[in-house]
Amino acid sequence: MDGKESTASGVWRILDASLNRASEGLRTIEEYARFVLGDPQLSEQLKQLRHQTATAAEGLPRSQLLAARDTPGDVGTAIETPTETERVDALAVAIAAAARVQQSLRCLEEYGKIVDSGIGRAFEACRYRSYTLFATLEQLSQRRDRLADCQLYVLVDGGDSIEAMTATIAELAKAGADLIQLRDKRLNDRELYEHAAAAAATLRPSRCLFIVNDRPDIAAAVHADGVHVGQDELPATVVRQIIGPERLLGVSTHCVAQVEQAVSDGADYIGCGPTFPSGTKSFEAFPGTDFLRDAAATTTLPSFAIGGIGAENLEYVLDAGFSRVAVAGAITRSESPAAMVAELKQRLLRQDESTNR
Ligand SMILES: Cc1ncc(COP(=O)(O)OP(=O)(O)O)c(N)n1
Ligand SMILES: Cc1ncsc1CCOP(=O)(O)O
Ligand SMILES: [Mg+2]
């Protein structure tokens, strides 16, 4: 083989190896989205990218790729980096696969141009699509991981001003609130958007997740971590289409049938209540702690008891098998909100050592 021939065969070997690496990596990520995240939207988008990559590869004759293949003669097969043999969890596997896919798509794009400039462009389009998709995957995984550790969920209103509200939520997050929900029925759309944008920006550097009540459009617009909807708002499946797979979806439930529906609609967590009479919202019926027991027996989804919960009645919620609560008045109407957050959180953490709900 002369120099020109061996360069050409080297290019075909690169294209062959990169194509295999890209399709294996995409399949690895797709399986994660399908079986670990259980996310139909993301799985479908990944499948489409796999098909798009296969279509781009149609410009590379299979016979030429196979003719150039020389796995035993590949000097790279024996090289192994220490991190290649260590994967902490399924997410780490998916993220490592995403990095390999992006590198392979870049190789296909650059070396593909030697064969045909159109092939380079087709793989470039795949690479750009992969950036957005993989960012979605990482955000979703991180949010779900953080949600799994959340126990104390605090509902706040817009306060007297945006500045007063951001000061309050920063204090609550610092004291140990795991999630903060902006719930304010008085604000008009513009005001709610502005409050939500400020709250999202305040909480972004912290571990505390930020959820917008009722409004998937505003949650998406301000890049919130998620949205919470009740039984009288948009159906969960519609909300999911608005917020995308990467944001958290919370659904209010008042009976076991609603819990089952929320689970099958793809909720990431549920609110269960009202448990006790509330100073924040009035109710005619209280499913109470009996419902908490039933919900605890129905789902393993993160479930937050809500409604009139405070330090004085928390033990009944814990006895019902819950170690996650959502509270408003007990904290926002307390003389020392930060101290109340710390107290409730400490009791929830203690409970979590014996049960994991
Ligand atoms: C965590 C959590 N659980 C339940 C609710 C109540 O939602 P909904 O039934 O839609 O009532 P409103 O809050 O909209 O009045 C919630 N907001 N958060
Ligand atoms: C919005 C809502 N939904 C059920 S109870 C409730 C209010 C929660 O506030 P509080 O903790 O003050 O009862
Ligand atoms: Mg609502």
From TrEMBL:
Q: Which InterPro entries match?
A: Aldolase_TIM, ThiamineP_synth_sf, ThiamineP_synth_TenI, ThiD2, TMP_synthase, TMP_synthase_cyanobac_bac
Q: Could you give a single Gene Ontology term from the biological process aspect?
A: thiamine biosynthetic process
Q: In which pathway does it act?
A: Cofactor biosynthesis; thiamine diphosphate biosynthesis; thiamine phosphate from 4-amino-2-methyl-5-diphosphomethylpyrimidine and 4-methyl-5-(2-phosphoethyl)-thiazole: step 1/1
* GO CC annotations on file: cytoplasm
Tell me its EC number(s), please.
2.5.1.3
Spell out the Gene3D superfamilies in the cross-references.
Answer: Aldolase class I
Q: Which UniProt keywords apply?
A: Magnesium, Metal-binding, Thiamine biosynthesis, Transferase
How is its cofactor bound, per UniProt? Binds 1 Mg(2+) ion per subunit.
Which reactions are catalysed by this chain?
2-(2-carboxy-4-methylthiazol-5-yl)ethyl phosphate + 4-amino-2-methyl-5-(diphosphooxymethyl)pyrimidine + 2 H(+) = thiamine phosphate + CO2 + diphosphate; 4-methyl-5-(2-phosphooxyethyl)-thiazole + 4-amino-2-methyl-5-(diphosphooxymethyl)pyrimidine + H(+) = thiamine phosphate + diphosphate; 2-[(2R,5Z)-2-carboxy-4-methylthiazol-5(2H)-ylidene]ethyl phosphate + 4-amino-2-methyl-5-(diphosphooxymethyl)pyrimidine + 2 H(+) = thiamine phosphate + CO2 + diphosphate
Origin: domain of life: Bacteria
- Residues binding 4-amino-2-methyl-5-(diphosphooxymethyl)pyrimidine: Q181, L182, R183, D184, K185, N213, S252, K281
| Cofactor(s) it depends on | Mg(2+)
Q: Where is the ThiD2 domain?
A: 13-135
Tell me a Gene Ontology molecular-function term this record carries: thiamine-phosphate diphosphorylase activity
Residues that bind 2-[(2R,5Z)-2-carboxy-4-methylthiazol-5(2H)-ylidene]ethyl phosphate? S278, G279, T280, G308
Using the record's annotation, list all stretches that form the Thiamine phosphate synthase/TenI domain.
152-331
User: What function is annotated for this protein?
Assistant: Condenses 4-methyl-5-(beta-hydroxyethyl)thiazole monophosphate (THZ-P) and 2-methyl-4-amino-5-hydroxymethyl pyrimidine pyrophosphate (HMP-PP) to form thiamine monophosphate (TMP).
State the similarity comment.
Belongs to the thiamine-phosphate synthase family.
Q: Any idea what this protein is called?
A: Thiamine-phosphate synthase
Q: Source species, please?
A: Rosistilla oblonga
* Gene that specifies this protein: thiE
